[in-house]
Specification:
Radius of gyration: 37 Å
Oligomer: single chain
Mean pLDDT: 82
Number of domains: 3
Number of strands: 18
Structural class: alpha+beta
Largest sheet: 7 strands, antiparallel
Low-confidence stretches: 69-108, 433-439
Distance between the termini: 73 Å
Helix content: 40-55%
C-alpha cells in the first residue's frame, strides 16, 4: 500500500510541473482554436495515469523533478561519498546499519505519517467515487418519466438543462419548453460531444482526479480541461452551422446557464461551467488563419512530446566505491574475511594491513561496464556483509568493488593480482619483506640523487613527418613543458582530426612526464595522462594557429567534459562514437604507455645517454634504457 501511494505521489508531483506548463502554453494559444488547447490536456492525463515513459534528451521535464523514498529507521545506511583522488581529499564510508531507536524514544513521526497517509488517500478516493456514483444514480431516478421524442433523444419536465447520459449508448436529455431553434443548437452540441467521446473522456478524467484528489493542481486541470472541452465544442457548432447563429446560440447558453462546473463525473451538461467565458468566446469567434492553426499544432506537438518523455537518467555518484575507501577501512581493522571460491563455505582471515598496503600501491583503472561480470569470482575479500572486493581467476586483470547493490569494476595488473593472491595464501605481503636487492636498489637510487650531478637535457622533439602530429606535439609540449623542473617527454595518441571551413580540431590523449637525470638515474618530477581537444585556425599562408585548447576535467566531470568537447569545430555538431572511443581507450592505454617509453628512449639516445633507469618508489625498476622493447 505504501509503495503504491508513493508511486502515485511521485506521478502527481511530476504531473504538477506538466500541468503548470500546459496552463502557460494554453495562455499562449489563446487565439488558437480551443480544440488544440483541449488536446494538450492529454499530456497531463498521461503523466497522472501512466507510471513510466521513454527517456530522451528532448524531454522538457527537469532532471530529478521529484524523488520520494521511504525512510525506515531499522534499515538505514550512512554513506558519505568521497571526493575524487585527484583533489587530494578522500572521505570515508560507513555502511553499518544505524542502531534501532530505543523503546522510550517514542514513535518516529515521519515513519508514522507514511503509514497513515495511504489510508487517508484511499478514504478520500473512495468518498469521491461514492459521491459520483450516488449523484449519477439519483439523476437516473429523475429520468424515469422522460419521454422519447427522437432517436436517443428524450425530454423531461423536471430538468433545468440538457445533457448527455450513458456510456455505451449515450442519450440526449432536453428540458421541456425549448424552441425548435434552441433544440437544434443543443442537439448538435451534444452530438459533437458524443462523436468525440467526450462523455467517456469526462468519466476517465474524473477517475484520474479521484486518484489524485489531494493535489489542488489536478482539480485546476480538471476544471480547465472541462472548460476547453465545452469551448471547443461550441466552436465546432459554429463551424458546422455558420457564424450567423452566434447571437441566438449565445442567448441559448445564457438561458440554460447553470453557472457551475460538475466536479463529480456526472453527465455532460450544455450550460455548465464559465458561461460568461463561453458566450464571449462564441461572440468573438471567427475562422482562424491557416498559419495560426499550423503554428499552434506545431507548438502543442513539440511541447507535448517534450512533456511526455522522461529526461535521461543521471549516472549515480559512485565515488564511494573508490579503492582508496576500502584501504582506509582496512587500515582500521586487524583482519579481513576471504572466501577462496564461489559456492564454498571455506573462509580464511588475512591481515587487513597487508591488504590495505597492497591496495594503496597497486594501480587501479576504472572500467566502464553496463553490468557486473557474468562469471563468478574466484576470490572475495569481505569487509562486512555489504562491502567486498571480488577478483576473478578467469580474468586476473579484473576486480570489482561492491557496496550493497552498487558496484564498480577496475582493471589491475597481473603483478597486483598475484600479490593479492600471495597475501591470501601466505598471510603476509611479500613486498613488505623487502629483499636485500631492493634495499640495495633504493640505496643506489638515494645515493645517485645525493652525489650525482644533474645532466641537463632539452625537452623531447617530434621528428616525424605527419603534419597533424607535428601540430599536436608542438602544442602539447608548449602546454606541458616545465623547464625549471627538468626535461619533458610526451607521447600523443590521435583519435581523429576534423576540418570545417578554416578550422581544424584534433582529438588526442597525451601522456606527459618531466624528469631530472642524475648520472644514470631518472627522477620523475611530475606527469599526467589527459584527453584533450585542440582547435586550430588556418591562416592565409596555410599555416595553423592555436585557437582553443580543451582538456578533460577531473573526477565526476571527466566523462561529461569529454562528451562535451567531442564536437565539430564550427557547427558544434556531435561527433558520434568519438567520446566513447576516447573514454574506452583511457581505461586500457598500454599502447600509449609503450609509445611514451619509446619516445623517452629515443630522446635519451639522441642526447648521448646510453644508460638510464627509472625506479618505482618501492625500488622496483619501471624503465630501463637497455630494455630491448625500447631499442631503435
Amino acid at each position: 500500500m505504501e509503495e503504491l501511494f508513493l508511486d502515485v505521489l511521485t506521478m502527481s508531483f511530476t504531473a504538477s510541473y506538466v500541468i503548470l506548463v500546459v496552463i502557460l502554453v494554453r495562455l499562449l494559444l489563446k487565439k488558437a482554436p480551443k480544440s488544440i488547447s483541449y488536446a494538450l490536456w492529454i499530456v497531463a492525463a498521461f503523466r497522472l495515469a501512466i507510471p513510466f515513459s521513454f527517456e530522451s534528451s528532448f524531454s522538457l521535464i527537469p532532471r530529478n523533478t521529484v524523488s520520494i523514498t521511504t525512510i525506515r529507521q531499522d534499515n538505514t545506511y550512512q554513506r558519505i561519498p568521497q571526493t575524487t583522488i585527484e583533489s587530494g581529499t578522500v572521505g570515508t564510508i560507513d555502511i553499518n546499519p544505524l542502531p534501532a531507536p530505543a523503546a522510550e524514544a517514542g514513535i518516529d513521526p515521519i515513519g508514522g505519517l507514511i503509514e497513515i497517509l495511504p489510508y487517508i488517500w484511499i478514504i478520500g478516493m473512495a468518498a469521491l467515487l461514492v459521491y459520483s456514483i450516488s449523484s449519477v444514480l439519483m439523476l437516473k431516478r429523475r429520468l424515469k418519466d422522460a419521454r422519447l421524442i427522437g432517436e436517443n433523444l428524450f425530454e423531461a419536465g423536471n430538468l433545468k438543462m440538457p445533457f448527455v447520459f450513458g456510456l455505451i449508448k449515450p442519450e440526449i436529455y432536453l428540458p421541456a419548453g425549448l424552441s425548435k431553434e434552441e433544440q437544434n443548437y443543443i442537439i448538435l452540441h451534444e452530438k459533437i460531444h458524443i462523436r468525440r467521446k467526450d462523455h467517456i473522456i469526462k468519466i476517465l478524467a474524473f477517475t484520474v482526479l479521484a486518484v489524485h484528489w489531494f493535489n489542488p493542481l489536478v482539480w485546476v486541470a480538471f476544471i480547465l480541461m472541462s472548460a476547453d472541452m465545452e469551448l471547443s465544442c461550441d466552436e465546432r457548432v459554429l463551424r458546422e452551422m455558420g457564424v450567423n447563429i452566434k447571437k441566438p446560440y449565445a442567448s441559448t447558453l445564457l438561458f440554460l446557464a447553470s453557472g457551475r462546473y460538475n466536479l463529480n463525473g456526472s453527465p455532460l451538461a450544455f450550460g455548465e461551467g464559465n458561461v460568461k467565458g463561453r458566450i464571449k468566446n462564441v461572440l468573438n469567434y471567427k475562422k482562424q488563419r491557416s498559419w495560426v492553426i499550423i503554428s499552434a499544432i506545431v507548438i502543442v506537438a513539440v511541447v507535448g512530446t517534450g512533456l511526455v518523455l522522461n529526461p535521461p537518467a543521471s549516472e549515480p555518484d559512485l565515488s564511494f566505491l573508490n579503492i582508496r575507501n576500502l584501504s582506509l577501512l582496512a587500515h582500521q581493522r586487524d583482519e579481513l574475511l576471504v572466501s577462496r571460491a564461489p559456492g564454498k563455505t571455506e573462509t580464511v582471515n588475512v591481515s587487513a594491513r597487508a591488504i590495505a598496503e597492497c591496495l594503496d600501491s597497486a594501480q587501479w583503472t576504472v572500467i566502464k561496464m553496463d553490468s557486473p561480470p557474468e562469471y563468478s569470482p574466484s576470490l572475495v575479500i569481505e569487509w562486512n556483509e555489504a562491502v567486498m572486493l571480488m577478483l576473478y581467476e578467469s580474468d586476473p586483470h579484473l576486480a570489482m568493488v561492491r557496496v550493497n547493490d552498487q558496484w564498480r569494476c577496475y582493471r589491475i595488473s597481473q603483478k597486483d593480482y598475484t600479490r593479492l593472491l600471495t597475501i591470501i595464501e601466505t598471510g603476509s605481503d611479500p613486498q613488505s619483506e623487502v629483499s636485500e636487492l631492493k634495499l640495495k636498489q633504493k640505496h643506489d637510487f638515494s645515493e645517485a640523487l645525493q652525489r650525482g650531478e644533474e645532466i641537463k637535457l632539452p625537452d623531447f622533439r617530434y621528428d616525424g613527418d605527419d603534419p597533424i602530429e607535428k601540430l599536436v606535439y608542438a602544442t602539447e609540449m608548449e602546454k606541458n613543458s616545465m623547464p625549471d623542473r627538468g626535461f619533458t617527454v610526451i607521447a600523443s595518441k590521435i583519435f581523429g582530426s576534423y576540418e570545417e571551413k578554416d578550422m581544424l580540431k584534433v582529438f588526442v590523449t597525451t601522456c606527459s612526464s618531466t624528469f631530472r637525470l642524475y648520472g644514470s638515474v631518472l627522477e620523475l618530477e611530475g606527469g599526467s595522462v589527459v584527453p584533450s581537444a585542440i582547435t586550430y585556425k588556418k591562416g592565409g599562408n596555410g599555416s595553423y594557429q592555436l585557437e582553443k585548447y580543451e582538456q578533460a576535467q577531473d573526477g565526476a566531470y571527466f566523462v561529461p567534459s569529454i562528451k562535451e568537447f567531442c564536437r565539430m569545430p564550427v557547427s558544434g555538431r556531435n561527433i558520434r562514437g568519438l567520446a566513447d572511443k576516447i573514454i574506452n581507450h583511457y581505461t586500457d592505454r598500454e599502447d600509449l604507455h609503450n609509445l611514451f617509453y619509446n619516445n623517452l628512449s629515443k630522446h635519451l639516445r639522441a642526447n648521448g645517454i646510453n644508460e638510464a633507469v627509472l625506479y618505482y618508489p618501492d625500488g622496483e625498476i619501471e624503465f630501463l634504457l637497455s630494455d630491448p622493447r625500447y631499442s631503435d
